[in-house]
């Protein structure tokens, strides 16, 4: 293109802008820059448990009452709006006897207890969900939730929400309940078990998308141990999805929770995908290498793997390492935007053969 043409074109660009119009050619630079995929949204980053814990303790002094807000510290990526562009992870502390009052919002959220106990309860749409250490409790989109610490110690849990996604789509709604606590069901446990178990009321509508649920850690750990000897995924090791108990699909419509076991010394293969993920180290020590950045982790550290960044895991400890993580794969899949390199690895391995086939081999 000649200089004369381009200066004429530049004038036209200004004219178009004044008319609230834009020529497609303006997008050329953007399109050229994404040949081969996007620049990752955010950078690889790690938050040390001891640093965050100290700040949580301090927040108890600076904010002596948790009544007006949540005493939650969100992990902010130096180069993204939240922990990733779609997900916010943070930690929340409640002192003995405290209640974080009831409210609801269109952000889907989940709680993973770090220092919990039988007296730590999140009530979700009237259902009291106990949060023992490492239990997962869902507070899906637009469900009422309040947290109560009836233990004699400070409690800490992970909060993970799809804030970036909900704000990006401009659909945040929020409503305080108006009282500290919401009324509770008289049949704790039964209501959920009767609707998420093997036998369900035939006359009721199915409530799948925002079904409150608790995944007790003892069940998770038992299954992880049982499957610890399997080959698993070359990229993530023995990795289990927290399935929605009603649909068998993702944990919530936008977010999926995973727990993965890496054997001592195990190093996974590197890959990248269009989804982003936040991680919490339950047990073990190791390194996650993300686009050349080494994130060295130990128990209760948290870290982030931004989307489209190449990463692999190394367990440097002599024990099985266990990582809890939350990703936005369901969002990407729902929009047909989930890509993975060098290959699609999710849900691709054949179902284990029946024993007769094994004999015939
Ligand atoms: C929220 O409502 C909670 O309910 C925790 O415990 C963290 C971070 C941002 C916005 C809302 C909670 C949150 C949050």
From TrEMBL:
Keyword Oxidoreductase: yes
InterPro entries noted in UniProt: Cupin_2, GDO-like, RmlC-like_jellyroll, RmlC_Cupin_sf
Keyword terms, alphabetized: Dioxygenase, Oxidoreductase
KW Oxidoreductase (keyword) present: yes
Span of domain Cupin type-2: 91-160, 259-326
EC number: 1.13.11.38, 1.13.11.4
Gene Ontology terms, MF aspect: 1-hydroxy-2-naphthoate 1,2-dioxygenase activity; gentisate 1,2-dioxygenase activity
PANTHER family: 1,2-DIOXYGENASE PROTEIN-RELATED, CUPIN
Protein name: Gentisate 1,2-dioxygenase / 1-hydroxy-2-naphthoate dioxygenase
